[in-house]
Specification:
Shape: elongated
Helix content: 25-40%
Strand content: 15-25%
Strand order of the largest sheet: 3-4-1-2-7-8-5-6
Radius of gyration: 49 Å
Length: about 800
């Protein structure tokens, strides 16, 4: 019957958790809707130390299969607590007339009860498995099977149930001093930790639900209150909560997800995740609970004289708290392990991961110290409190405490010590003592208000005047005000001094479309780091989701953390080419290391040899958000550097500026062709066989002079073609931007010569004839149809080298 009570109370707790939590879980996952009974059974196993085992099998399409197993451990404390409460209230009533005065029959009953309880829980858990279909999306034939049956769970269930049965059958009548003391010790420790856990669990659950804006979390209270309360109890007693992860990977997992790794983190009551008022309030609550438990322990024991001198009396309570600390470590432990694999495409991918959350392993040592503090306070603090405390307050704080009998003088006495005056009854308390208590309460309340007010003020100042937001506002104010140099003092991008030439007040103050305002939308503080999310307004548009990271760096105003920005959106402008000195936003800036291309590398080169292109050409310069106006260098008659360029840089973006490269103007084509045409027209218009300086345009019938020859006229056979081209290809262009490097004038011209001649000197008759020939500078082909004349440009001076015209053309003979 005791086992049935334990089982019934635990099932009631499982039912409460399912009744509150399952409808909410089913709203997110409809497949859980009809699983209330299996859910109850599996919670029963979890409550007594079993791990949940989950197995996943699924097919993705027709060629990939997924399989995996998940193991989770977390104790829903409400399950064993309600079971133990049921046994505590009704256990001795249902055991009937069965007695076990000695340890042997009690042990036999305990073993039988433990085996029965563990067997029932394990068998039912194995039968009532939770099967959750997951046939969604691309996953076919997918299911998740959950159960808590296992050897370790069976062992824990046996030990717990056996211990409960053994305690129930302990005789209450005629119990010795140490037996009563052990019972009182266990009750005191249980009262201390359970009451503190429930109080803090309720408070933390409500705070989390409100702060997260999720009131539906309160439906999980039967599950959350014990677990959060256990963690909060540890934190209040200066025990940290640990969080650790580990992972392993192999085959393709390592290739795509990286090598195995993990991390270990801890959270204490002093961590930055909590508001500043949390730690003094938590420590105050823990101290009050120690004092109250010391008073109850003093009243419960009576502290007879022979115990006060016995060294064992100092060890008893700390030892009990140490054991309770081990229980806290187990009940606070939550772990999640995953092992799985994917098979497909002829390969197998496998890996595993583990997550653990628990109180620090040294929680049992801290609990032993707490027990020692309770023991010390019960000996030296509790008696004075009891003698002076108002009767009603004393009665409230010692509610449900079994007190030793009092002497005829109205004082509590231990058995066998009728005259031991330890704790007076209410009528001996004086008015003066009551006044002292009132004064003490007022002082305590004042101290609490000072601590709370100071904590609130510290928290407020830490977030405002001395918080990370203040440093962020300082940086953003500088950007909005155009104070680039002050912004750089707050956060400087990783750039050399020569690269930071655009981060000056003169340049940035004149930038158009600078941010006009900002808004900080969120601040998150995590230990020594803070993450601030903000927006900037530029040209009437809001740039959302910007983020900067700050870290603690020293102290300011003695007690407040100083902050510095370690990461913020960075911007840059890459200038492809240009002179070292260029005006930006009307301010002359020296760009050291920036080079300007020569008068254009030929376009034909870049077209036919794309390997020569360099996307990384140019220099990058960090800037702040805004528009940057680059003024083109002053052009000459023959060389231009293009138009002014404007670049818009948004927060966190990189912009490209084409920069400035020299290009020829239309005047180069016009003046070069004009010079050549004038010279050629003069040459052709000459009556001389070999015009001076234009010998190439001359023509002689008989170089030896054996046949008389008279020039009549020289003219163009057709309109000459005079073009300017790049020296490396000879194709004429009409667009000067296509010219680059060395240039030349290309002439395609044919000269028509009319003349008179005799066959020999003795002949009296002159004969008329004509002939045409092309101007050419090619010695190997006297009839080449092209003449090339190099062009040089120096500032506003353009010269065409026409010296080749002074070379005689070898055109003798037909």
């Amino acid at each position: 019957m005791v086992v049935a009570l334990l089982l019934g109370g635990s099932l009631l707790a499982s039912g409460l958790i399912v009744a509150f939590g399952l409808p909410l879980a089913a709203s997110d996952e409809p497949s859980l809707g009809g699983k209330w009974f299996p859910f109850m059974i599996q919670l029963l196993g979890l409550g007594y130390g079993a791990s949940a085992h989950m197995k996943l099998d699924a097919d993705v399409a027709d060629w990939v299969g997924i399989s995996g197993s998940v193991s989770a451990f977390a104790v829903p404390l409400l399950v064993p607590l309600l079971g133990l409460l049921a046994v505590r209230l009704f256990g001795r009533r249902v055991k009937g007339g069965i007695t076990a005065p000695s340890w042997a029959p009690r042990l036999a009953l305990a073993v039988a009860g433990g085996l029965a309880f563990a067997t029932v829980v394990t068998v039912v858990s194995a039968i009532a498995r939770m099967k959750i279909p997951l046939d969604e999306g691309e996953m076919a034939n997918a299911s998740l099977s959950v159960h808590t049956a296992g050897f370790l769970g069976y062992l824990y269930q046996f030990l717990i149930a056996a211990a409960v049965v053994y305690v129930v059958f302990l005789p209450r009548q005629g119990a010795g001093y140490w037996q009563r003391t052990l019972r009182d010790t266990a009750v005191t420790v249980a009262e201390h930790l359970l009451s503190l856990t429930v109080l803090l669990g309720i408070v933390v659950t409500i705070v989390v639900a409100v702060s997260e804006g999720e009131p539906k979390l309160l439906l999980y209270a039967p599950l959350l209150v014990p677990y959060l309360g256990t963690a909060a109890t540890g934190l209040a007693n200066l025990v940290s909560v640990g969080y650790s992860t580990s992972a392993s990977s192999s085959d393709l997992v390592e290739e795509f997800l990286g090598s195995a790794g993990g991390r270990n983190e801890s959270l204490s009551v002093f961590s930055g995740e909590f508001p500043a008022w949390v730690w003094p309030v938590a420590l105050l609550i823990a101290l009050v609970w120690i004092v109250v438990m010391a008073l109850r322990w003093r009243v419960r024991r009576g502290l007879p004289g022979d115990v006060s001198t016995d060294p064992l009396s100092w060890v008893l309570l700390p030892s009990a708290y140490l054991v309770a600390g081990l229980a806290l470590l187990v009940t606070s432990w939550a772990s999640f392990s995953v092992k799985g694999g994917v098979e497909g495409f002829g390969q197998t991918v496998s890996g595993s991961a583990h997550v653990r959350i628990h109180l620090a392993w040294w929680v049992f040592f801290v609990m032993a110290l707490v027990g020692l503090l309770v023991e010390v306070a019960s000996r030296w603090v509790a008696p004075g409190m009891a003698r002076t405390m108002p009767t009603k307050l004393f009665g409230f704080l010692t509610l449900w405490v079994h007190r030793p009998p009092t002497t005829r003088h109205g004082v509590l006495a231990a058995p066998g010590q009728a005259g031991a005056q330890l704790i007076p009854t209410g009528h001996e308390r004086s008015a003066r003592a009551k006044r002292w208590w009132l004064l003490g309460l007022i002082l305590a309340l004042g101290a609490a208000l000072i601590v709370a007010g100071g904590s609130i003020a510290y928290a407020s100042l830490s977030k405002t005047v001395y918080g990370p937001n203040k440093q962020a506002e300082k940086y953003l104010d500088a950007i909005v005000d155009g104070r680039a140099e002050d912004a750089v003092k707050s956060y400087s991008p990783d750039a050399s001094k020569d690269q930071g030439v655009l981060l000056t007040d003169e340049v940035y103050a004149e930038a158009k479309n600078r941010p006009t305002s900002y808004k900080i939308t969120d601040t998150q503080i995590d230990d020594d780091y803070a993450s601030i999310t903000y927006s900037l307004t530029m040209d009437g548009q809001s740039q959302e989701g910007l983020q900067m990271i700050l870290e603690r760096s020293g102290k300011q105003a003695v007690v407040f953390s100083d902050w510095r920005i370690v990461n913020a959106p960075e911007q840059s402008v890459r200038i492809a080419s240009g002179p070292e000195k260029t005006q930006v936003n009307g301010v002359e800036v020296e760009f050291k290391g920036l080079t300007m291309s020569e008068l254009g590398a030929s376009d034909e080169d870049s077209y036919y040899d794309e390997s020569d292109e360099d996307e990384g050409e140019g220099q990058s310069y960090p800037v702040l958000p805004g528009d940057y106006e680059f003024s083109a260098p002053e052009a000459s008659k023959y060389v231009s550097y293009g138009q002014d360029q404007s670049v818009t840089v948004l927060p966190g973006d990189d912009a490209d500026a084409d920069g400035f490269s020299p290009t020829y103007t239309q005047a180069v084509i016009e003046d070069a062709t004009s010079q050549v045409r004038s010279k050629l027209d003069a040459c052709v218009g000459s009556k001389s066989e070999y015009p001076k300086g234009c010998e190439l345009a001359g023509w002689v019938w008989d170089e030896k002079g054996e046949q008389p020859f008279k020039m009549k006229s020289r003219s163009w056979s057709s309109e000459p073609e005079i073009e300017v081209s790049n020296a490396d290809n000879g194709y004429g262009v009409s667009d000067p931007s296509e010219l680059g490097g060395e240039i030349e004038v290309v002439v395609h011209a044919t000269v028509e010569v009319e003349y008179r001649y005799k066959w020999d000197k003795k002949d009296d008759d002159w004969m008329d004839s004509s002939r045409s020939y092309s101007l050419s500078d090619d010695d190997d082909d006297s009839w080449s149809s092209r003449l090339t004349l190099p062009v040089t440009v120096d500032g506003d001076d353009l010269k065409v080298d026409m010296s080749v015209l002074g070379k005689k053309q070898d055109n003798n003979g037909w």
